[in-house]
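Aminoglycoside phosphotransferase (APT) family kinase protein: structure, please.
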Amino acid sequence: MQKEEVQQGLERFIAARTGGSVTVSNLARLSGGASRETWSFDADTPQGRIEGILRADPVPGAPTIPGRELEYHLIKAAWDAGVTVPEPLWDGDDTFPVKFFVMRRVPGETLGARLIRGEQYAKAREVVPYQLARDLARIHAIREADHPELAGLERPPAGKTSAEAQLDYYETSYRTAELDPHPVFELAIRWLRQHLPPPSELVLVHGDFRLGNFIFDETGVKGILDWELAHWGDPMEDLGWLAVKSWRFGGRLPMAGVGTREAFIEAYEAAGGRKVNRQHFLWYEMFGNLKWGVITMTQAATYLTGRNRSVELAAIGRRTAETEIVLLELLEGRWD
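Here you go.
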């Protein structure tokens, strides 16, 4: 959408909800990929200034997963459950030719390396693991029975556990995209097949819960972001993904680079999270490293086959070897 279209539309949309004249200023489109448009703005309303974010689908009639309407309901359910998320203000209407919603803007930082290295974040590094554990426990407590608006989220097919369905999906992605042999991936897939965890209760899984996908400042976590991969699944998936080595951004500790596994598990359980089976958790950490490795490989294949000549995809593809080293360490029992 064009800037003038967004400004005029926001002014009409917010005015209808605040009961008076609205002026939108400081409107700027933020980076965020092709799957959505994200605009930052300030709106002066009869009730005061709103520092807001507009999230919109990029193309009329082209659904995204999840769509913006479902993303709004996810954030609203999380907000109502006490999760640290930006406040969802309004779901969209027909103001724009695409689905959209508006939420409050949260100031802070998202770059993971800055949390790990920044002197100003020393106190945040101490509290972030406990804050994330609390938020994850609250996410996993959200029940489908209480939120029929979330019924459209993906779930494992009948007859398969969440772990099996996830492994099937990424093995298929690997087989489809493989251009060269990757014996480490073969070993990891075999190990994961041989050690599949037992069935678990399906809960709301964030799906991309990691350093880099939450806003933080000197006091810690300010907002959990990036709900695009949310689904009904195994709660240990989120714990294992948070521990993936690539998401530590050079941090020495496994959980978001700043926390130990045991302290995180204790905080998660104390906040009402599911009782954690350590082997179940480690299975998902192994799987998370394989999953990220497959993603890097498929993005490289997209570049190498000429489907997309983005240098970013090529650069990400170079990280496949990193995940193979990590997987070899884990297969040898070296969990750092």
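Notes: The longest helix spans residues 278-304.
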